[in-house]
Amino acid sequence: MMDVIDCEYTVQGDGPPLFLIHGIGAARNTWRRALPELTRHFTVITYDLRGHGASPMPDGEFGLDELVNDLEALRARTGFEQAHFAGHSLGGMIGPAYALKYPDRVLSLGLLSTAAFRTDDDSVKVWGVVHAMEEKGIPQVLETLTARWFTDDFLTSHPDVVRNRLKQVVDTDPDVFLNVFRIYAGTEMAPWLDQVSAPSLVLTGENDGGCNPRLNRLINAALPHSDLVILPELRHSILLEAGEVVAEHLIRFVNSLR
Question: What is the helix (H) or strand (E) element at residue 173, kind and residue range?
Answer without folding.
Answer: none
